[in-house]
Specification:
The chain has 312 residues and is an alpha+beta fold. The protein has a domain of 113 residues: DD-peptidase/beta-lactamase superfamily (Beta-lactamase). 35% of the residues lie in helices and 17% in strands. It is built from twelve helices and ten strands. The strands form three sheets. It has a six-stranded antiparallel beta sheet with strand order 5-6-7-8-9-10, with helices on both faces. Strands 1-4 form a two-stranded antiparallel ribbon. Strand 6 and strand 7 form a beta hairpin. Helix 1 crosses helix 11. The longest helix has 15 residues. The two termini are 28 Å apart. It comes from Colletotrichum spaethianum. Belongs to the peptidase S12 family. This is UPF0303 protein. It holds the Pfam family Beta-lactamase.
Length: 312
């Protein structure tokens, strides 16, 4: 295991999907003439048309990009409903029930991020992985980041093995890697901690390739996740691919990820110029525990004043 070892980074992919859309919104005609005037408030169905049909007529007509990206569509996870391609995933939505009215609750939904990835593909005419590489990863120097299992395995880098812990027999068993599903925009990135350090530096310093407006939008809260949860103070919010909260008096942005046994966590505190990315290859809370420990050490918080994350 080295800083160049590859891991699936799970739902941290969502922030890249939001970042990609911010580029298109900044210059809607830069990559495709198929659609112009794109904004965060653009109805998804106006772009995906016959593909994006929901189980409610009003929702079909009114759900916007920012609704889909901030988990306020009224759709629950529906994880058991799966498809092989992004388009098939989008077309599944018409058959799935909503749990609440749109814009009334935080309901985490990977399929909506799959839809947003597909929307990028429709507008640009490019595979989402190619779009990310050309417009996000290359400008940020992320040369050890991939969007398919085959590309990662042929990269020459080591892809970490996955292990499941059996508490009955008290041993770890290896789990085979799974190719990406039709929800690529939600969690298909394979990367290294070194590349994520580059990404977090860009996001923390609000530098290119995102514009200042793009940085502001992806971190502006659109939804409430929960009223309070330790070790944070006050409510946890959700922006576009990022959670926001106050940690030890500092505005903090973070997201976690999970793909089979791969677990990841990324956290940044811009005011303190510190960001942390932790990846593991076994189903454990270690990434969150380690990331917060590093932050507490950096902030000089006494050990007896730190919340015990193992309580959760």
């Amino acid at each position: 295991m080295t800083p160049h070892t590859l891991f699936y980074t799970g739902s941290t992919t969502k922030s890249f999907t939001a970042a990609g859309l911010s580029l298109l919104i900044d210059n809607a005609t830069a990559n495709s003439s198929a659609y112009s005037g794109l904004t965060w408030k653009t109805p998804v169905s106006s772009v995906l048309r016959d593909d994006f049909v929901l189980s409610d007529e009003w929702a079909t007509a009114h759900i916007t990009l920012e609704d889909a990206l901030s988990h306020r569509t009224g759709y629950p996870r529906h994880d058991l409903a799966s498809a092989k391609t992004a388009r098939e995933t989008v077309r599944l939505l018409r058959h799935l029930p909503m749990a609440t009215e749109p814009r009334t609750a935080f309901l985490y939904n990977n399929k909506m991020y799959g839809a947003m990835g597909y929307l990028i593909e429709v507008l640009t005419g490019s595979w989402l992985g190619d779009f990310f590489r050309e417009h996000l990863w290359k400008p940020m120097g992320m040369n050890e980041t991939y969007f398919s299992l085959s590309d990662a395995e042929s990269s020459g880098l080591v892809l970490a093995r996955e292990y499941f812990y059996d508490p009955i027999h008290k041993k770890h068993s290896e789990v085979p890697h799974e190719p990406a599903s039709g929800e690529e925009g939600a969690g298909s990135i394979i990367s290294t901690v070194l590349d994520y350090a580059k990404y977090l530096r860009v996001m923390m310093n609000e530098s290119a390739p995102l514009s200042k407006a793009g940085h502001r939008e992806v971190k502006t809260p659109r939804n409430f996740v929960i009223s309070s949860k330790a070790p944070y103070t006050g409510p946890i919010t959700y922006a576009l691919g990022w959670n926001g909260a106050v940690f030890e008096g500092h505005q903090t942005y973070f997201h976690t990820g999970a793909v089979t046994m791969f677990i990841s966590a990324m956290i940044m505190i811009p005011s303190e110029q510190i960001a942390v990315a932790v990846f593991t290859n076994s189903d454990t809370r270690v990434p969150e525990v380690v990331a917060h420990h590093i932050l507490w050490e950096h902030l000089g918080v006494p050990k007896d004043k730190r919340y015990n994350l193992n309580k959760q």
